[in-house]
Amino acid sequence: MLVEKQLALQPYNTFGIAAKAQELVRVRGLEDVQAVLADPVLRSRPKFVLGGGSNLVLTGDVKPLVLKVEVAGRHLASETDRHWIVEVGAGENWHDLVAWSLAQGWPGLENMALIPGSVGASPVQNIGAYGVELQDRFDSLDAIDLQTGQVFTLNAAQCAFGYRDSVFKHAPPLESSGEGVRGMGLAGRALILRVRFALPKRWKPVLGYADLERRMAQEGLSAAEVTPERLFHWVCEIRRAKLPDPAVLGNAGSFFKNPTVSPEQCADIIARDPKVVHYPMPDGGIKLAAGWLIDACGWKGKSVGRAGVYEKQALVLVNRGGPNDPVTGGEVMTLARAIQTSVYERFGLRLEPEPVVL
Ligand code: EPU
């Protein structure tokens, strides 16, 4: 097992923040984690699991042992009457998986094209875009318990998916309940090795989203004429038009979650700001577009130090520093807090950041 010391993490986080990992081990398979857990010193060290680094703000050098997930491999594991079950290593790139699965004739992930990051991070965050969330295409995953070394499998219910949320984002209870790793918070406790996706054989396009409906109308197509490839192409075009490419301008995607309010709170906000973008949810709550709220507070295009608010989408914070003079995590968080204060003062709502802040 190779332990890399003082490793620069700038290439490994999409914000492009310069920070170092004091120690880093690359995980290409179960054996690498087992070697860490067998090491008398490393086994007890706090650990941080790094995927594609696309949802991460580094506010300093990383002291916990970094386990960088590089588990590779993609194949058809099985099939049922209704689904292709595709198994993918956690270290595979998410967008490459979307493109590859389409090319194999297994559609279903196309609405989530171009989401930055790795396959292993996709269930943690329950990534989603244009009306499809990871949980809609999820079968199961294999992970390893970083305390016991036990490998376990979780189905969708056990992952407790929510909006940009899962069991992997919640802290374990302080005392072990004695029921093993299942059914409790797994933040910092589990490393995802492989994810299995259930891709529908009777595919139907998920349209509904205003941007996609507009494209369909522009091209004069009916839903029946929309192919997975066309939908993939539209999603890529829409995202490229309004979201910055992290390879060009560092960012971590949407920086805040879209907040949910009660119908009464929403009515209050509409009375003051009739244009507020809002979507009714199946559970009776109302989701507000955080990008709109931030935009309404005048933040679009603004900067604090080298941290900026993207000109075309106020929900995305960007790195305006150069490669040799990148934004710091501190600057990003100062800007984030200033935005939270503005939105709270104007709308009485607390925006919750999406990325992990380390
Ligand atoms: N809006 C503004 N000004 C802005 C930004 C947005 O007025 O500066 C308005 C838009 O015009 C639109 C509404 O707000 O009416 C919503 O904007 P958009 O359609 O761009 O979607 P979003 O709610 O900002 C969410 C996800 C994205 C996902 C898109 C498409 C969250 C936090 N973000 O963004 O996910 O790609 O929908 O499904 O749920 C991510 O999580 O990192 C991410 C990029």
Mean pLDDT: 95
CATH architecture name of the largest domain? 2-Layer Sandwich
**Class from helix and strand fractions:** alpha+beta
N-C termini distance? 25 Å
Continuous helix count: 9
- Series of H and E elements: EEHEEEEEHHEEEEHEHHEEHEEHEEEHE
Query: Considering DSSP H and I runs of 4 or more, what fraction of the residues is helical?
Result: 10-25%
CATH topology of the largest domain: Uridine Diphospho-n-acetylenolpyruvylglucosamine Reductase, domain 3
Bound molecules: uridine-diphosphate-2(N-acetylglucosaminyl) butyric acid
Major β-sheet strand ordering: 6-7-12-10-11
How would you describe this structure to a colleague?
The protein is α+β, with helices and mostly antiparallel strands. It folds into three domains: 3-69, Uridine Diphospho-n-acetylenolpyruvylglucosamine Reductase, domain 2; 74-240, 2-Layer Sandwich (Uridine Diphospho-n-acetylenolpyruvylglucosamine Reductase, domain 3); 244-357, Alpha-Beta Complex (Uridine Diphospho-n-acetylenolpyruvylglucosamine Reductase, domain 1). It contains nine helices and 20 strands. It has helices at 30-38, 94-103, 122-125, 156-159, 210-218, 228-242, 263-272, 290-296, 329-347, and strands at residues 4-8, 20-27, 47-50, 56-57, 65-69, 74-79, 83-89, 128-129, 132-133, 138-145, 151-155, 190-200, 251-254, 260-261, 278-280, 286-288, 303-304, 307-309, 316-319, 356-357. Strands 6-7-12-10-11 form a five-stranded antiparallel beta sheet. The protein has a four-stranded mixed beta sheet with strand order 1-2-5-3, covered by helices on one side. A hairpin with a 6-residue loop joins strand 18 and strand 19 (316-319). The protein starts with a strand and ends with a strand. The mean pLDDT is 95. Uridine-diphosphate-2(N-acetylglucosaminyl) butyric acid is lined by residues 129-130, 253-254, 257-258, 277, 289, 291-292, 295, 300, 313-315, 354.
